[in-house]
Here is the input.
Amino acid sequence: MIPVTKAFFPPIDNYHHQTRRIWKNQWLTNRGELVKELEKNLEQYLDLESIVLTTNGTLPIQIALKVLAQGGEVITTPFSYVATTSAIVWENCKPVFVDIHPKYLTIDENRIEEAITEKTTAILATHVFGNPCNVEAIERIAQKHGLKVIYDGAHAFGVFYNGKSLLGYGDVSTCSFHATKLFHTGEGGAIISKNKELAHKLFYSHNFGHNGPTDFYGVGINAKMSELQAAMGLCVLPFMEKILESRKKTVGVYNNNLDFNQLSKLEIRPGTKWNFSYYPIIFRNEEVLEATLEALNLKDIFPRRYFFPSLDTLNYVESDPMSVSREIAKNVLCLPLFYNIEENKVKEICEIINYTNLNFK
Ligand SMILES: *Cc1c(COP(=O)(O)O)cnc(C)c1O
Here is the structure.
């Protein structure tokens, strides 16, 4: 069976080595030695000043919204994983959708200003599939209107844009280290901010608001990463070069073998050093997508409809129809992409897709 993605498993001996440190320290959570070490290693790997590790990639979005959006209207993308929108609603803010760019699939910066009202407090945009939003334009709009910028960087691990770590943009960026993500800690995530004062607030917010054992800076929640999660991260991080190399090769095979007269692929924004995190293809209509999916499933190959449905159609939001996002969501499929997927399998996937598309109706 070929799934859309497969978690990377480091050698078990490496994990034993890390867990032995935990047993020796007799320390399981509350910012132990391994969490701090992983934070340092990630700061270095990602070229960021400061990272706070969290227990997943959703809580950092919620914390950023709690601190920065404060119940206001949040301008956001309809084309992302559901967590981007559900976090807004969960934090009692109102999502205001702005449609996406048809090629880059990120929020269309040219439509943001018309969505701003006096209740707007923040912009929450996703670097979907690791493709950067137009961060410069978004920064200018935010400055002009006094808005905060939060990036859902769940797919942005290791991406550099104009020579800078993509996770360093915005007032806050978040990341996810879920098992299915490029770099993972089983479950996990991170919150990143360059602003010292804001970083302090985000930090105490992720640990119940604590200022020492008996005093509190303010309200907080528990979003701490545990030592067991950090142990996995410390084992996976040294393999990143190998993981990226393998994925790059697979992306090359897809690029060289798929028939792009029948389909289109994601266009990466110029100036981007991309991370090969996903391989989305866009079909000409939903019927041919369904036929292709069926043909692949028959061969035990299971791509996924990422991201479907368009988030402006969720039953707990109100929105004008986001027509570009709805069209893309209907027609997009993410192809299998993971460490050491067999080249022959990838070629077989391309053949099935090409054949189905060429012969459909
Ligand atoms: C995975 C993902 C999240 C959520 O991260 P978790 O670690 O699973 O909580 C949020 N946003 C996007 C775009 C994601 O893909």
Summary: The first strand starts at residue 2 and ends at 3. DSSP finds eleven helices and 15 strands in the chain.
